[in-house]
Each structure stands twice: as C-alpha cells, then as structure tokens.
Design a protein that fits this description.
This protein has no helices and ten strands. It has 121 residues and is mostly beta strands.
C-alpha cells in the first residue's frame, strides 16, 4: 500500500466498530474500548460542534501513533477562522480521544466523534 493508497480493484471490508449514542451531545476526553486490531485503516466521522451539524470523515492508518483531526471554518460576517480539532490515538486499550478544541479553547462540545469504522484491505 504505497503512500497509503487503496489499490484499484481491491476488495475492501468495512465494519462499524462504534456509534455515538448521543450524536447531538458533547464528548469528553476518554478512551473507547474498541478492538481495532486486524484493520488497515480506522475512519472517524466527526461532527464539528454541538451547535454545528456539519460532519466530515477522517482516516487513521493503524501504523500511526496519533492523529490530530479537525476542520477549519471561516465566518465571513466576522472574518474569523475557527479551527475545530481533537487528537485520536490508537492504543492497546482502544482509541484514546483528547478534549476537543476550538482554536485555543478546550471543550467537550468540539470535534465530536459520531461513528468509527474499521477498514480491511
């Protein structure tokens, strides 16, 4: 898998490993007890914030130590850029999430994981 690409014609198996039971709520720093062994990639679907329903998906390689994921948003009326982010780290216990952030402010209402999937090639 050079460069982290998925070869054309590859058979991909995708499993839902976890779903947030409270997708509109906040998400504090924690470790989710998820067995991610046997997967080549982990996909995290993220909600930007409790008050912003916009979502995006990030990919972690199982060889990564940890990954900061997030999204930039620009408020054109105030000309302000907001960076929503959270760190996800694969550990032997599961997936460890830091507190969410908006710029330099930490909070459980930012970069909320909604769903985690494992991908096998």
């Amino acid at each position: 898998m050079a460069g982290g690409t998925i070869p054309m014609g590859a058979r991909v198996k995708e499993d839902v490993l976890w779903t947030n039971s409270s997708p509109g709520g906040s998400f504090s720093a924690q470790t989710l007890q998820i067995d991610w062994s046997g997967y080549d990639h982990i996909l995290i679907k993220m909600r930007v914030a409790t008050n912003i329903a916009l979502c995006t998906v990030f990919r972690l390689f199982t060889s990564d130590a940890d990954v900061v994921y997030g999204m930039n948003m620009h408020n054109f009326s105030t000309d302000t850029v907001y960076v929503y982010s959270r760190t996800a780290k694969l550990t032997s216990e599961g997936i460890q999430f830091s507190a969410g952030h908006r710029n330099t402010s930490a909070g459980a209402g930012y970069a909320i994981p909604l769903e985690i999937r494992g991908v096998r090639l």
